Fold PucR family transcriptional regulator.
Amino acid sequence: MRGDYQQLVDDISAALGAPATLEDRDFVLIAFGAHGGDDDLELTMDPVRTRSILQRRSTAAVRAWFEAFGIARAQAPLRIPPDPAAGVFKGRICLPVRHRGVVHGYVWLLDDEHLAGLDLSGPPADPRLAQAMETAARIGALLAAEARAEAELGELLRELLIGRPAGRDAARAALREALGPSGDGPLALAAVTPWRAAGDAEGEEAEGGGSALAAQSGVAALCAVPDSLPDGSPALAALIRLRALTTPAPARTAADRLLRSPRAGGPPAAGVAPVSAT
């Protein structure tokens, strides 16, 4: 499915003749569509875009800066002006990626001179923009489907960890079946604290999301575990695939990536332990 996103982003880049990036709503990079021969120059001239592509995510500060323009509420494309002080040397055109009213991500286009005449004030009269928004809607449907599947896995993991004892065997069996071959292990369980659950940020629903984060971190399933800390804050539980129980490095790498998520708040901590698939 990740290849589907790359093709769709390439389609948007081709339609509008501009480099495009696709991020999920946590500002984790999913795909990057190059266009033309000036992409290296564009990267050099915009530090925020450079870091997003090279580090596969944007920082919490960058996310807050862009969200201040109302992108989480936007129903249509919007233009964001440059701000060199924020590292945004070139303006952006943001195409909100929505499905059934829920924002699942954003397509970002560099607002260079050949897009200056693109009218964003009303319904897309420009056929290029209409085509790009249709493609963004297809991306939204794919991200929503991933979110639903991951939410189901997360519910099973949560039930296994904190559900009633009588239901844990059933949750374990269902989770193992849903994971397919990876359900046979080896696996590790990581706990990340503190964790800002979905729904705490503007434009997010209570469950789902994190598709790109899970895919890039090698996470088989993840869930927020409520009331994990003395102050009632949640923690994140992540079930992570291992190559062998004797090589926990992938789990530590995944935990490190999760700690760098915008949802990891406060002084972060993570613990990793192997788990049995039986």
Observations:
- Confidence is low (pLDDT under 50) at residues 201-209.
- The helical segments are 2-16, 39-45, 47-55, 60-67, 127-162, 165-179, 211-217, 249-259.
- Strands lie at 20-24, 29-33, 78-80, 92-99, 102-110, 187-195, 219-225, 235-241, 264-275.
- Residues 147-275 form one domain.
